[in-house]
Design goal:
Elements (H helix, E strand, L loop, with lengths): L1 E5 L4 H16 L3 E7 L3 H6 L3 E5 L20 H18 L10 E4 L4 H11 L3 E5 L20 H19 L1 H11 L6 H10 L4 E3 L16 E3 L15 H8 L5 E4 L8 H15 L3 E4 L15 E4 L5 H4 L5 E4 L3 H10 L3 E3 L6 H10 L9 H6 L2 H17 L1 H14 L5 H12 L1
Parallel strand pairs: 1-2, 1-4, 2-3, 4-5, 5-6, 6-7, 8-9, 8-11, 9-10, 11-12
């Protein structure tokens, strides 16, 4: 089968599909992954065909261009999402080749992919990294991670879908016009898809998100799709030397998140590590973490991307933003997390890690930003000490790692495709 996977967003929104795609390819399918140009090397390294999507998830809305960091307030987040979707809508149709037989649509691309599937008469399946269907079990993943009670959770979930519909109004209208489809609102298309029990496979573990009892048929959880990792992949020599030179350090990194004040965030991380008496690895990332102003033999800055699958098993704990992929990688490595969620679904995953007993209570980035630096350092240092000394955190993290080792997320996907199309 000729399969096109479409995925958009940051590295964490793309990388799991390289692992899933590689498994589909190994099973005999032809697989292409359509995503942003920055990720072409990782797509091709997994043996997949690359197709370009034009949108830049980092591009700010004009109203927010005087703010350097990742937006954390709801209005700015919605403005950036709307601009992103409008860019994405202009090019998603170009990614579909005439011989495409199946569309695998990510959480971010499905609301546009439904129009493509309708116009081109191509079967489609959801391949989601976040749960989006309303449920009594938990509030929407972008709702901050706090339960509103059964009725409130489900009502908030429906409202969240309507917000997504509004975000796609302009892009969907333009795409349907281009494809020669009759007018239809995003909400109408979504409801039609849901009524048909459109299949959605979720690439996370029921250990973290048990399947809600009130989900409709067709919504299934498969287990994680781990990013493709080349058999000969290695950590940079300088990092290997650092890891071998002393006790396991703490990893500090915030992935694709950016900060208005990178200097302050770096100082916060460095001072907290020193107050806790810990060695550290700063993963520079988009937050531009560095020890340039306070060099130390006990803290190493790593500028190049580093596979979590290689680094995390070698560290004592990880301070991170709680993106879905990083949260999963910490559990897979059996290490405690210190969650510093910035925005979007990150508070949800932070709460899930804490509920497993594998993480300290979250230190939301907006809260740390508002605190005086000395107070923020004290809060983070306390969490670091807890993460590296509390036996229960390590025990629960290792238990989660053993559970995840028994799961094989791509196999249920292969089985589902066999069942649906044969």
């Amino acid at each position: 089968m000729n399969i096109l996977i479409t995925a958009a967003g940051s590295y964490g929104d793309i990388a799991p599909y390289t692992g899933l795609g590689a498994r589909l390819r190994a099973a005999g399918h032809q697989v292409a992954l359509a995503t942003h140009d920055d990720f072409a090397p990782v797509v091709r390294a997994a043996g997949l065909d690359f197709r370009s999507l034009p949108a830049d998830p980092r591009a700010a809305h004009p109203a927010d261009r005087d703010r350097a960091g990742t937006p954390t307030d709801r209005r700015a987040l919605i403005r950036r999402a709307t601009a992103f979707v409008e860019q994405l809508g202009t090019g998603v149709a170009d990614a579909v080749s005439p011989d495409t037989e199946l569309l695998l649509l990510s959480t971010t691309t499905a609301p546009l992919g439904w129009h493509l599937a309708e116009a081109l008469d191509i079967p489609s399946v959801g391949a989601y990294l976040q749960p989006t269907a309303p449920t009594r079990a938990f509030s929407p993943v972008v709702g901050g991670g706090r339960s509103l009670g059964g009725w409130g959770n489900r009502a908030a979930g429906r409202l969240s879908l309507r917000v997504v519909d509004r975000l796609h109004t302009g892009a969907a209208r333009a795409l349907r016009t281009r494809l020669g489809l009759p007018p239809a609102t995003p909400g109408a298309v979504r409801r039609r898809v849901e009524a048909a029990n459109w299949p959605v496979l979720h690439g996370f573990s029921e250990l973290l998100v048990p399947r809600p009892a009130d989900w409709r048929p067709g919504l299934d959880i498969t287990g994680y799709w781990w990013p493709h990792l080349a058999p000969d992949a290695q950590l940079p020599p300088a990092l290997e030397d650092f890891l071998a030179s002393g006790p396991p350090p703490v990893s500090v990194g915030f992935g694709s998140m950016t900060a208005d004040d990178a200097e302050r965030l770096s100082a916060l991380a460095v001072r907290a590590l020193r107050r806790a008496g810990l060695r550290g690895v700063l993963l520079s990332g988009n937050a531009a973490l560095t020890t340039a102003d306070s060099p130390s033999d006990d803290i190493l800055t790593v500028s190049a991307p580093v596979p979590h699958a290689l680094l995390f098993p070698r560290v004592a704990a990880a301070v991170h933003h709680c993106g879905a992929g990083t949260s999963a990688a910490a559990l897979r490595a059996g290490i405690p997390s210190v969650p510093v969620p910035f925005t979007a679904d990150q508070p949800f995953w932070a709460a899930r890690l804490a509920s497993l007993g594998a993480a300290t209570p979250a230190l939301p980035f907006p809260t740390l930003t508002k605190l005086p630096l000395d107070d923020a350092v004290a809060r983070l240092a306390t969490a670091l000490t807890e993460a590296t000394t509390a036996p229960s955190l390590r025990t629960h993290a290792r238990s989660a790692a053993r559970h995840l080792a028994t799961e094989d997320g791509p196999t249920p996907v292969l089985n589902a495709l066999t069942h649906l199309f044969h």
